[in-house]
Design brief:
Length: about 260
């Protein structure tokens, strides 16, 4: 799946990018995106938090110092079995029109393309044109109602793009994300099974999903979770407290956290 969007991304767009990247990777999908700050970086953060694989397509050669702000994400992509891709052997800086040429590779590599935050005149709309010309299925995050930063997104939706808010909607109901639904509790014969009271995965925030993904590997200290989730320690501690109150995690002596057996 390809996922890309605006560099000057709104908070809603960044949340959507991280969540969709995380959910696609959790389901086993390989996510193809660019290397820019904003939506592209958010998608990579989501994939990394899920322990998944991404392919990052560059408009420069692989040794170029360009886009230093996202270099740490590209390193993590490689560490997790992903890949960096480029057409260039010695292109230190993007040539004129280089990003537009690069975009055709991102859409061309995937049967489905997700776009997040497209202004009416923007680079994100170039993705849409490439996707249409390549016969790709186009999905668009609608964004806040009336926001000018999403004027192009609304036009794409009017022209037939599929509105999506989560990765599971992109994958389709036949490939629901693993562990998305809580375990069913047996009910009397003839009655539908009842679900436990814990929130479903798609109802959790990106940060909550990132914490749970880390704890799937075993108990973690706060320091280990801070490094694994890339989150501010103060914010993480507040999040852990809320999650413990919800029954999503358990704490043990030594400030170690784990997932309860019922999860």
């Amino acid at each position: 799946m390809a996922a890309a969007g605006a560099r000057k991304a709104l908070p809603e767009s960044l949340d959507a990018a991280r969540s969709i990247g995380y959910q696609l990777a959790t389901a086993g999908g390989v996510v193809v995106t660019g290397e820019a700050v904003g939506v592209d970086a958010g998608v990579m953060e989501g994939v990394i938090a899920a322990g998944g694989r991404a392919v990052c397509v560059l408009p420069v050669d692989l040794s170029s110092p360009y886009m230093a702000k996202t270099a740490h994400l590209r390193r993590r992509v490689l560490e997790q079995g992903g890949a960096l891709m480029t057409e260039y052997f010695s292109q230190r800086s993007p040539a004129q029109g280089g990003f537009q040429l690069r975009n055709r590779l991102i859409t061309g590599l995937c049967p489905k393309v997700v776009l997040i935050q497209a202004a009416e005149k923007s680079g994100t709309m170039i993705y849409a044109r490439h996707a249409a010309g390549q016969g790709r299925r186009l999905y668009v995050f609608p964004g806040p109602e009336g926001a000018g930063e999403f004027a192009g997104s609304r036009r794409l939706l009017r022209e037939g793009a599929v509105p999506v808010y989560s990765g599971s909607e992109v994958l389709g109901t036949d490939r629901a994300i693993a562990m998305e639904a809580p375990t069913a509790v047996k009910s009397p014969e003839g009655e539908p099974p009842k679900k436990q009271g814990l929130p479903e995965r798609q109802e959790l925030s990106f940060e909550q999903q990132a914490v749970l993904a880390q704890l799937e590997k075993g108990p973690h200290t706060v320091d280990e979770l801070t490094e694994g989730c890339g989150m501010d320690p103060g914010k993480l501690l507040r999040l852990l407290t809320r999650m413990e109150m919800q029954g999503l995690i358990e704490s043990a002596p030594g400030r170690r956290y784990s997932r309860p057996l019922k999860l």
